[in-house]
Inverse folding.
């Protein structure tokens, strides 16, 4: 045969494994960054100034194209597709990160102004204008959330245990369906539910900390049920059978084997469920209300919580407005810190309680 | 301690599917009984019906009688939990509790039932059971390490230790050696021979040599066809089954001329 074989990847001397030409290690990232720089220039040209949104859009497209085309020319098709998808995934990740970073930055920037000891040590009692704090709101949030947890976790956990360990047939299906429906309840509806419920007994206009807890429970229970159900299902049946075979009753098996084995996942799920409801505003507006002084008793009188506090500081700042708005940002910052702390707790729980393999 | 098991006209169902039909057998105390047969013929199903583990599966049920020393296991007033306390079980795949140490795994029966026991008694029990399961020497220095950190064969012996620690009267073993190397297998076979002094042992195995080596009596399960229930075709002393079985099917299966 005299025809020349098409250009093929270099074959290695040792054997049939094909060795492809590769781009140098930092070439793809370099090309991508170059694409972004060009994108920034292009954005500047078209708009006549620095524009972050256009830079990201142009840059991502150009960078991806540059990487893909170069890789295609040098490395061949399969590798080029790999690079293309890597670029797309990275871009998506960066885009998802932009709002988060921007949010954290803004809240830190504006919230740190009043992040002082007065904010944590004083309530709004008698405060007009400067000064004042959110001591009462932080306490209120902690109390209401704790109460919500106390209501939701037993109910949610028991429901999940029923669904996984006992339930069958129609009732199980019905409960699963209702839990799904509950997951989708708008939070204001949960608030109105609690409001209506307590109005029956105490008349309209009633505001109590515990009402907020009831409203938040309506939101939290389905989250707990769902996450606990998933975690309980992960416990292998073999462990239950091992326990039964030792002559252990079903209830003890559930408590000492199933729950013990899944405690890490349960703890994580519950902590994340708390994080989910701690920042709710709407249901608390209509249930716990607002006061300027500290109220530690959720069964008597209004109770301020952080989200509601931030809401009112922002929407009804009074005059002058600046101190109130600064307080609102700081309240938001404290709330974010609380949620972050809960997330860290969730991670610690799953780290410490996960079954150890010991290998 | 060891007890005799009499099974009569036992039908075992998964919902409406009849998996095993018409088993009549008498299992002698202080003996090892082997159950052999092709895959899917209902050996595990039958074994699990002997300690009421079968009904753990939703929709599973049993008709007929299983009598242990005169007491009907499926009698209306019998609590399955008590039955399982008397009849222990070792599963095909080792399943130590992943959250427990080796020590806690062995006394899991005590711990999970919240039975009160002195620390020194517990230590004794752990040592005795682990020695009984031929595992003591390997793990005595790391009793507080997690049980799931052992090798597969060690885990299986740990499960055996756990089963004998509750001092059952009958021990059911479902292919206990199927995941083990020949050395661990021999260790477990020796162990069974020792244990039969105290327990009645029923073992399911796919290994003919194993059945021939350890058992006193052997039962052969077979399917008459696809979708048909499994049946106990022949039950005889092991020597007879392996030298001159009564049934043609048994002979074919044992000599490898099956199917
Ligand atoms: N959980 C279950 N639900 C419904 N049918 C089942 C279930 N477990 C087993 N079966 C059916 O029961 C029959 C007997 O199964 P079994 O597990 O007892 O077989 P086996 O003899 O132990 O087989 P192997 O030697 O492969 O372990 C099979 O037809 C199987 O499909
Ligand atoms: Mg089986």
């Amino acid at each position: 045969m005299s025809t020349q074989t098409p250009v093929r990847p270099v074959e290695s001397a040792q054997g049939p494994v094909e060795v492809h030409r590769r781009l140098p290690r930092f070439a793809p990232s370099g090309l991508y960054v170059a694409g972004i720089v060009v994108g920034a220039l292009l954005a500047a040209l078209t708009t006549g100034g620095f524009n972050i949104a256009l830079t990201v859009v142009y840059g991502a497209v150009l960078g991806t194209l540059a990487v893909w085309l170069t890789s295609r020319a040098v490395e061949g098709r399969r590798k080029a597709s790999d690079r293309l998808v890597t670029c797309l995934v990275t871009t998506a990740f960066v885009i998802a990160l932009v709002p988060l970073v921007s949010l954290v930055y803004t809240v830190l920037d504006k919230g740190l102004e009043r992040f002082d000891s007065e904010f944590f040590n004083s309530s709004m009692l008698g405060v007009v204008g400067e000064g004042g704090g959110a001591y009462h709101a932080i306490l209120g949030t902690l109390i209401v959330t704790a109460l919500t947890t106390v209501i939701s976790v037993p109910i949610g956990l028991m429901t999940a245990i029923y669904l996984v360990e006992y339930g069958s047939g129609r009732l199980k299906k019905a409960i699963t369906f209702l839990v799904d429906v509950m997951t989708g309840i708008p939070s204001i509806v949960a608030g109105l539910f609690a409001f209506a419920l307590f109005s029956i007994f105490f008349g309209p206009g009633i505001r109590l900390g515990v009402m907020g807890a009831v409203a938040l429970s309506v939101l939290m229970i389905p989250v707990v049920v769902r996450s606990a159900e998933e975690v309980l299902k992960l416990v292998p049946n073999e462990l239950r059978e091992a326990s039964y075979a030792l002559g252990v009753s079903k209830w003890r098996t559930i408590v000492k084997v199933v729950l013990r084995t899944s405690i890490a996942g349960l703890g994580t799920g519950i902590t994340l469920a708390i994080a989910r409801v701690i920042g709710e505003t709407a249901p608390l507006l209509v249930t716990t209300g607002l006061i300027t002084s500290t109220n530690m008793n959720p069964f008597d009188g209004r109770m301020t919580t952080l989200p509601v506090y931030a809401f009112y500081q922002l929407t009804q700042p009074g005059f002058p407005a600046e101190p109130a708005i600064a307080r609102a940002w700081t309240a938001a910052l404290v709330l974010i810190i609380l949620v972050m702390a809960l997330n860290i707790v969730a991670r610690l729980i799953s780290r410490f309680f996960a079954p150890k393999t010991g290998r | 301690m060891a007890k005799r098991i009499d099974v009569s006209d036992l039908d075992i169902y998964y919902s409406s599917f009849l998996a095993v039909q018409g088993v009549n057998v008498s299992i002698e105390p202080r003996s090892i009984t082997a159950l052999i047969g092709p895959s899917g013929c209902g050996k595990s199903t039958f074994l699990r019906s002997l300690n009421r583990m079968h009904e753990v599966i939703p929709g599973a049920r049993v008709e007929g009688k299983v009598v242990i020393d005169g007491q009907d296991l499926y009698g209306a007033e019998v609590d399955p939990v008590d039955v399982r306390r008397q009849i222990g079980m070792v599963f095909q795949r080792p399943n130590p509790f992943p959250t427990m140490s080796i020590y806690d795994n062995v006394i899991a029966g005590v711990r999970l039932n919240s039975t009160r026991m002195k620390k020194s008694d517990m230590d004794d029990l752990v040592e005795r059971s682990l020695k009984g399961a031929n595992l003591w020497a390997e793990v005595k220095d790391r009793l507080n390490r997690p049980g799931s950190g052992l090798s597969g064969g060690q885990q299986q012996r740990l499960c055996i230790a756990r089963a004998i620690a509750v001092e059952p009267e009958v021990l059911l073993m479902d292919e206990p050696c199927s995941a083990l190397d020949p050395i661990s297998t021999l260790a477990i076979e020796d162990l069974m021979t020792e244990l039969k002094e105290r327990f009645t042992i029923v073992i399911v195995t796919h290994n003919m040599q194993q059945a021939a080596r350890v058992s006193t009596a052997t039962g052969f399960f077979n399917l008459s066809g696809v979708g048909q229930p499994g049946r106990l075709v022949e039950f005889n002393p092991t020597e007879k089954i392996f030298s001159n079985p009564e049934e043609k099917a048994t002979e074919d299966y044992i000599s490898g001329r099956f199917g």
